[in-house]
């Protein structure tokens, strides 16, 4: 009964407050921007949003989003692989793939889900995942869901990465994949993708990058870390979000891998979730 659980929850909350770790929601009453209106402090400067390019409330994006909702509605009424995929989903996926230079793209319900759903369908206990020690929590959780052998290399340390690749190869692993954030938002590090790709070629490994904090502003045309490090076409899997530089989570990957993720829908469940917010995102892609 809840009566027995409630005291424990209240105690935990009090301990969190005593430690100075209690989080309160900041309620915003205006569109996102450099200046926002809040219920507690009125007008304030906003230094903590991920709206890097200021597109979330851009007039052209808002206008296109309204038009897309008028033509396609809002709710999907079903998961994607039953009857929840609309033409605008496919158009957005195609536009993302073209922009990123990959064969195909899958839209997810959240960026956390993209990293959580990509490993298990593609890799088994015969394979090895070699992960940067400071990778985002969503990557770590996704790796934990997978049965593949796990290796970790010191942050941005190419010597240690090579050692882990050698160890994984010596154990006779079938496939090896190096996984790293493109740019590490808490540390400011930009992954040495050129060197990572060279090592991947040397040890016959795949490369995956998380571009949540990179796509949209890193690289000459904003394609992300793989453009910034001049390795376009050498990265096998890219995960990311449009919710920071621009607004939907996605995985860009080879077409055959996409087909496997679709077939393993019970494992990669987030791709099958209703995604009504893709309508305005499709509009955003068309505007941009």
Report a brief summary of the structure.
The chain has helices spanning 2-18, 59-72, 80-84, 87-100, 111-122, 137-144, 158-170, 193-202, 225-228, 255-263, 278-287; strands at 35-38, 42-45, 104-107, 128-132, 149-153, 176-181, 206-210, 237-241, 249-253. With 288 residues, the chain is α/β, with parallel strands linked by helices.
Shape from CA axes? globular
Instruction: Give the neighbour order of strands across the main sheet.
Output: 3-9-8-7-6-4-5
Count of helix runs:
11
Taking pLDDT < 50 over at least 5 consecutive residues as the criterion, the unreliable ranges are 282-288
Reading the helices and strands in chain order gives HEEHHHEHEHEHEHEHEEHH
Which characteristics define this entry?
alpha/beta; single chain; two-stranded antiparallel ribbon; 11 helices; 288 residues
Secondary-structure map:
Elements: H1 2-18, E1 35-38, E2 42-45, H2 59-72, H3 80-84, H4 87-100, E3 104-107, H5 111-122, E4 128-132, H6 137-144, E5 149-153, H7 158-170, E6 176-181, H8 193-202, E7 206-210, H9 225-228, E8 237-241, E9 249-253, H10 255-263, H11 278-287
Parallel strand pairs: 4-5, 4-6, 6-7, 7-8
Antiparallel strand pairs: 1-2, 3-9, 8-9
Q: Would you mind describing this structure in some detail?
A:
The chain has helices at 2-18, 59-72, 80-84, 87-100, 111-122, 137-144, 158-170, 193-202, 225-228, 255-263, 278-287, and strands at residues 35-38, 42-45, 104-107, 128-132, 149-153, 176-181, 206-210, 237-241, 249-253. It contains eleven helices and nine strands. It is an alpha/beta fold and 288 residues long. The longest helix has 17 residues, at 2-18. α4 packs across α11 (278-287) and α5 packs parallel to α6 (137-144). It is globular and about 60 Å long. The model is unreliable at 282-288 (pLDDT under 50). β8 (237-241) and β9 form a beta hairpin. The strands form two sheets. A seven-stranded mixed β-sheet has the order 3-9-8-7-6-4-5, with helices on both faces. Strands 1-2 form a two-stranded antiparallel sheet.
């Amino acid at each position: 009964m809840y009566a027995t659980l409630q005291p424990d929850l209240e105690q935990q909350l009090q301990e969190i407050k005593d430690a100075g770790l209690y989080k309160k929601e900041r309620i915003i009453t205006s569109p996102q921007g450099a200046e926002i209106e809040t219920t507690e402090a009125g007008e304030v400067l906003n230094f903590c949003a991920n709206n890097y390019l200021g597109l979330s409330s851009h007039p052209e994006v808002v206008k296109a989003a309204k038009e897309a909702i008028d033509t396609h509605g809002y709710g999907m009424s079903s998961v994607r692989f039953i009857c929840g995929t609309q033409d605008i989903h496919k158009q957005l996926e195609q536009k993302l793939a073209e922009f990123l230079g990959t064969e195909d793209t899958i839209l997810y319900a959240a960026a956390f889900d993209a990293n959580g759903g990509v490993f298990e369908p593609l890799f088994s206990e015969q394979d090895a995942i070699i992960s940067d020690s400071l990778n985002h929590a969503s990557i770590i959780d996704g790796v934990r869901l997978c049965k593949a052998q796990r290796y970790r290399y010191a942050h941005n340390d190419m010597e240690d990465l090579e050692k882990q690749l050698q160890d994984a190869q010596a154990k006779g692993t079938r496939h090896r994949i190096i996984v790293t954030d493109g740019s590490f938002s808490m540390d400011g590090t930009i992954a040495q993708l050129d060197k990572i790709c060279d090592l991947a070629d040397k040890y016959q490994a795949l490369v995956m990058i998380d571009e949540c904090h990179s796509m949209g502003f890193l690289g000459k045309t904003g394609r992300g870390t793989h453009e910034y490090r001049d390795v376009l076409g050498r990265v096998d899997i890219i995960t990311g979000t449009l919710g920071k530089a621009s607004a939907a989570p996605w995985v860009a990957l080879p077409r055959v891998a996409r087909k496997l993720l679709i077939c393993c829908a019970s494992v990669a469940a987030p791709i099958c979730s209703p995604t009504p917010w893709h309508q305005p995102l499709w509009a955003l892609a068309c505007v941009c």
